[in-house]
Amino acid sequence: MSFQFTEEQIKRYSRHIILPEVGGKGQKKLLDSKVLVIGAGGLGSPSLYYLAAAGVGTLGIVDFDVVDFSNLQRQILHSTDRVGMPKVESAKKTIQALNPDVNVIAHNEKIHKNNVMDIIKDYDIVLDGSDNFPTRFLINDACFFLGKPLVSAAILRFEGQLTTFDYRDKNNSPCYRCLFPEPPPPGLVPSCQEAGLLGVVGGIMGTLQANEALKLILDIGEPLVGKLLVFDALHTEFNVVKLRKDKGCPLCSENPKIKELVEYEQACDVRF
Amino acid sequence: MENIQIDKELDLKGEVCPFTFVKSKLILEQMNPGEILRVILDYEPSVENVPKSMKEEGQDILEVKQIDKGLWEVIVRKVR
């Protein structure tokens, strides 16, 4: 393997290169990799920021929203002077100021059945940091059909959840629908707009998502496949529970009911 | 040690830690196992640190020697 780094890159990535598990070889892998992050919000902000710092060469960002004052309590990619600016644009500015090695692809659009495959297909790994069930199910199903690893995190109040679905190896990885076969009925699970959220929980879970992505790219350690990590911020506790493949899963079982993308209705679009 | 066949030489005069090791490592990673690298250093702490870090990565240090006033050489065989 051969690689050529500039003097600036040698300095920038020196702490990576020193690691036996990374080295110049691993750093080149990072620079050659393409990661898609859905949502430039509470989870996407820290994951994107760390992936950019790490030198992930291509970062795609999907978000159709604009920066709002209510975001700034946790969404560290954005700032007060960017209120009203599309989030993907604000994210791109912050990332490029941090690391010009990163090529940022801004997808300033809402994900739906007809664009999700096209958006995802060119990336190596997908990170879900979305804030609603229809999007989560759509991303999961699309990643499953395309065989892309999906690092999924969710946050609410003082709790965070994280797991990795490795759809490159569908026989050995459970899927999101093994955990949640269908979206919950509208109103059953509150959104973070309704329930509140300690900002730092997004920072912790988003950073863990970035960690999962880096491990997948570098092919080191063990990804969090078949396990669900639950973080309790009030007691500072991490618990890991086993996730099993559901033999009757509507998506990944031997006789799946779902064979194409399904679009669910968004229960509520309340904005605060 | 006169008969060591050097495959690659790296002049790191003016470089300090940790970049002396980082730059040596980047060259070593692109060499084949068995090949030999000679590194020239003028930063004294690196004379200890570079061979130490190389050893930790499993490389074979063949020689660490002062070759002039304020100038040292480290000769290393790539193992992996």
Brief summary of the model shown:
The complex is a heterodimer of chains A (272) and B (80). Chain A has 272 residues and is an alpha/beta fold.
Distance between the termini of chain B: 22 Å
Overall body shape of chain B:
globular
User: How do the strands line up in the largest sheet of chain A?
Assistant: 3-2-1-4-5-6-7-8
Care to count the β-strands of chain A?
A: 8
Which SSEs are present, and which pair or pack?
The complex is a heterodimer of chains A (about 270) and B (about 80).
Chain A: H1 7-12, H2 14-18, H3 23-32, E1 34-38, H4 44-54, E2 58-62, H5 87-98, E3 103-107, H6 116-120, E4 125-128, H7 133-146, E5 149-156, E6 159-166, H8 176-179, H9 192-195, H10 199-218, E7 227-232, E8 237-242
Parallel strand pairs in A: 1-2, 1-4, 2-3, 4-5
Antiparallel strand pairs in A: 5-6, 6-7, 7-8
Helix pairs in contact in A: 4-5, 4-10
Chain B: E1 8-11, H1 19-29, E2 36-41, H2 44-56, E3 60-68, E4 71-77
Parallel strand pairs in B: 1-2
Antiparallel strand pairs in B: 2-4, 3-4
